[in-house]
Amino acid sequence: MTQKIDADLARFRHIVRGKVRQNLRRFISQGEIFGKKGKDVVSIPLPQIQLPRFYYGHKQTGGVGQGEGEVGTVLQPGAVEGQGAGQAGSDPGEHVLEAELTIEELAQILGEELSLPRIEPRGKHRLEAEKSRYTGIHRSGPESLRHFKRTYKEALKRQIAAGLYDREHPVVVPIREDKRYRSWKTAWIPECNAAVIYIMDVSGSMGDEQKEIVRIESFWIDTWLQSQYQGLEVRYITHDAAAREVDRETFFHTRESGGTMISSAYTLCADMIASDYGGAEWNIYPFHFSDGDNWSNDDTRLCLDILKNRILPAANQFSYGQVESPYGSGQFIKDLREGLSGQEKLVLSEIRDREAIVQSIRDFLGKGR
Q1: What is the average pLDDT across 345-366?
Q2: Domain ranges of the chain
Q3: Which of helix, strand or coil describes residue 12?
Q4: Which residues lie below 8 Å from residue 344, measured CB to CB, with a gap of 6+?
Q5: What is the average per-residue pLDDT within 87-97?
């Protein structure tokens, strides 16, 4: 029975994965996947999947065709024909199942659907993880770790040496002294870690819709990078005319105000990399989202200098996403193309609306850096 249930569960999960993959682009563009998010699982609303279940009747109503009553009597108490809290409708109800997927499963579906290459980490971080490895054989240990082949060989050698082995009846019976057990050794191995630095323009031209696009895209970027690294450290920077490091909640809910000076954010990002992620041991991914406005041409030239000499040499990749806004000029992405042409670590993406999020994710993560 257990095996049959496991087979049914595996088949159902396969169906769920198919539904998620079929609707993945809609989940990404509309943000529907954010219904619930736990530490390791995400709950996804999937329409048109119904699980069979029993519906129990109300107490003291008897069974169908039993007890007193006239033809046409309503069986469900309180459900009098023609009465109710709403109007009658002709459309079927929407049946929604919330299916839970792990972050790893979600990342795998994302990678398959967008054909994302796996990332090759470029360094080992100084932090180490504990890992147990079976490295030897002991004479004592739990039965669950008993080494069958070594135990058999010890018993066979003992019986042959004692003259107890009969070739005509080759029965080998181990005794306590013959038993051998696997032993393990705790090893410390370095982990590949990544630092993700999100930078967002929160000036007056970045509205709620633009920030929602950034929130959706950053979730999927995090999901993919978490599947590629054992550790993922995320930092957040907001900027208008001045830059500051904030937490995630503040990052996505800061009210828009003020002008725009992008160099302040790039300076803070470069200082953060130099102080906390120095050397070649970290895999660093800065992502900057803006509507393309900047204070002046002088500040833009300063941004290009910081990127070229401080951020790009230290980062695996610098990604700039320009979110279209009715109030933004969109000039900054043009300046980056002209001023830093030929820089392989610089990836640019124009995000017109929510429908463009999928292509932007592919632009950013499709290089495999």
Answers
A1: 93
A2: 1-51+95-115, 128-188, 193-365
A3: helix
A4: none
A5: 50
